[in-house]
Amino acid sequence: MATKSEELENKARVKLELSKKYANLCRISGSKPARGKFIRRSNQLRRQAVEFQRAADAAKA
Which member of 12, 36, 38, 44 lies 3.0 to 4.6 Å from 52 by CB, making a disulfide possible if both were Cys? Predict the structure, then answer.
């Protein structure tokens, strides 16, 4: 069973990968509204990844 910090690190890794996915969708999207939607989602996921990483670092200490 994973420790709390390992779980948080995994969540951060998943959020970062999803952020990359949405950034790519933004890049290849044809419409401006869709690009805006994808870039907002990408930024949101990136912020969440940072928060999960901070929590994981705090759990280690």
Answer: 12
